[in-house]
Amino acid sequence: MNVETMEMGGLKCHVVDTLAPGVPPSITVVLCHGFGAPGTDLVALGPELLHSAPQLAASVRFYFPEAPLSLDDLGMYGGRAWWPLNIERMAAAVENGDMRHLRSETPDGLESARTLLTAFVSDVCETDGIDAGQIVLGGFSQGSMLATDVALSFSQRLAGLCVLSGTLLSEDRWRDLASERGPLPVLQSHGRQDPLLPFVAAQWLRDLLIEGGLSVEFLPFDGMHTISVDTLQRFAEFLIELIPD
After folding, report:
1. Which domain, by its residues, includes 236?
2. What is the C-alpha to C-alpha distance for residues 28 and 31, in angstroms, rounded to an integer?
3. Which of 32, 87, 101, 202 could form a disulfide with 143 if both were Cys (CB 3.0 to 4.6 A apart)?
4. pLDDT band for position 237 (50/70/90)?
5. How far is the C-alpha of 167 from the C-alpha of 147, rounded, in Å?
6. CATH number, domain at 141?
7. What is the pLDDT of residues 107-138, one digit of tens each?
8. How far apart are the C-alpha atoms of 57 and 128, rounded to whole Å?
9. Number of domains the chain contains
């Protein structure tokens, strides 16, 4: 198994695969970490998915881009973010059960993060010699919000989207984009006891995507703000299903 660190599309990233040099993947997976996590936070998922489904080894390459913003100045040493978060405001909204107004907002910094990740995905396509229809884009928490935004707005339909503990943002824009996107396969999971991004907000996102015509498989689990073992297993199966015949 090869693990490399490089610069692509203006972002530092980590690449995991077992393919021989020069062999293009059938599917390329791009996974974005969450707010406050180090850029390497999700890299271990590559080996875990390959162990869970060994047949992926001959077909799949994994990219784990690092978010552009350092959080060292906030005391979160090594932590990174795709855009700044007002954590106190979000916590107050969760505590007061008042998440509805947040679903309509577009966070400051989302547009620039979208531009970066879009360029990254385009660079991955060129590097791997594939088209966008072979890209599975996903992420955890804030990374999954960005992945959703890019998957909905990308110029071509991607192979799939994986939303791990995400939430609904930019509601009007995402609704319009979803209605134009068509039947994109989506795997979405969320913990019923998530204290950071309430379960109901994940249901709002699920419903919006389904209403827009996307093919959503929703995996609730009894747990908090995390990725469940069952979700990881289903994600491996999801990737197998997306490998072209």
Report:
1. 2-242
2. 10
3. 32
4. very high
5. 11
6. 3.40.50.1820
7. 889 999 999 999 999 999 999 999 999 999 99
8. 15
9. 1
